[in-house]
Amino acid sequence: MKFHRILPALCLCLYFCLASGASAQDFTINEFVSSITIKEDSSITVRETLAVEFHRPRHGIYRDIPYRYQDSYGSSIQTPIDIISVTDGSDRKVTYRVSRAGNIIRVRIGDAEQYISGLQKYEITYRVQNAVLFFDDHDELYWNVTGNDWNALIKKATSRVSLEGRKTKQHWASCYTGRKGSRESACRYIPGDNFIEFLSQTGFMPGEGFTIAYGWDKGIVSPPSSIRKFIWMMNPDQNWVFMLPLLSFVIMISLWMRIGRDPRVRESVTVMYSPPQFDNKPLTPAEVGAMVDEDLDPRDMTATIVGLAVRGYIRIEETKKEGLIFDSTDYYLRKLKEADASLSLFERQLMQDIFGSLQGKMVSEMKNTFYRNIPSLKSMLYEGLVQKKYFATSPDNVRKTYLVAGGILTIGTIGLLSTLLGDRLGDVRPFIVGVLAGLPIIGLAKYMPAKTRAGSAVYMHILGFQEFLNRAEKDQLARMKDQNLFSTFFPYALALDVADNWAKAFEGIYQEQLDWYLSSSSLRTFNSVGFNRSFHAAVSDMSRAVYSAPRGSGSGGGGSSGGGFGGGGGGSW
After folding, report:
1. Is the pTM of this model over 0.85?
2. Smallest Cα–Cα separation from 39: which of 120, 121, 129, 114?
């Protein structure tokens, strides 16, 4: 196909593309007039008058004004902005709404229930802080008058900058036009008596803008104090809401000190040579472990299984299975007798959950299945401790209450702040504040369960017993002349995480051969350290098995267009 044959078609397509792009613009800004007054305290007042022509019915326009910038060093600069008024240019107020999103303030002008068209005028007046630059030889306002983010044509733009107070002897001035970063200067300026006027000599397409720089003698405008700069940096107008998480933290600490701490029953730990008892029955290893950290963890469960073995209810049998390269080890839990009244409700339920109607079970068979029993076992253990009056309320219920309260506070704070103050705070702050407000409650929930005085006394007894298990000396153990002492207290040593030291203490002391654990390589003489080392694998396997769950459970010419403060843009709605 010849080029001259397709040229008319290409031109026609280009025409329609340009025409559709122009028609897509809902309005044109015929004139953008900015009047800026620089106060002696370095604040500035900006009055923007926009003569707008709507090409089809719309509700009005919106004006986006940045209030947070980054300097050339990457530091954040805040320029607090207060919207003073919005009128129709004849001092008649119009409907508008101010909101914040990211780094901009959006002034949306118009009535959602009313459409307008044709020629309209809008006058937006606002005050800006921290926008004046202070140099060694002069002070300066570097200001993006129109902004470069309008999605409409701006036919003409002018700006008048006035100084309040003493007159300046010298002027520094420059102006820039075009897209962001452009050094084009299709504009001019006219100095006056303590003011200067900037006039554009071209219109501005979407993405283009008008930027000015005006400098004056030092001493006319006072620099802001360090305190004011600090306040601007802290942005209290928006960031005051971060006091809510601090308040939440203070309240939670107060609650913990008042109702979450255990009562003090004595100052120091006294060594105890046996576990605490209730109704002349020693507490189970699971109860002892739960009294220490107020939780039922895998170590407590394993210690209870070992305790049942020590007391003759089950036997733990090590089994080996030959492999091509390595042998695998498993453990068989054999039920020797039925659970009876001498066991606690928790121990009876544990045996039922392990065996059911069977006489034995491999530990490997419990993986990814036994975990379903953990919640009910936890509940039963905690209920037993409450019945013994060691806790006024189940520790698990206390934790859940605070976790739910933290979740409700998080969601409620996000919802309330977004609904009531979302326009002022922006989109992100309500979410961050809500999460931070809930964190102290959620984070401290695990520390909120509190023991009773009786529970604190038992806790101190357990610490004394733990001290004995952890620091027992050979001669002391030898004098006790108990050939089953190692086995008797070994489940408690597991629950209290001192099994290694308990085993070392019996090195060289005769103890009866264990009948509750059968190893594939049994020794003639019992060796506590060797046994503890080999039994560690069994403990690890049982701990993993009972809790394992399948996956899925759950100015100066150095500027450019678009530089300086001010800027932004807008559109119609």
Report:
1. no
2. 129
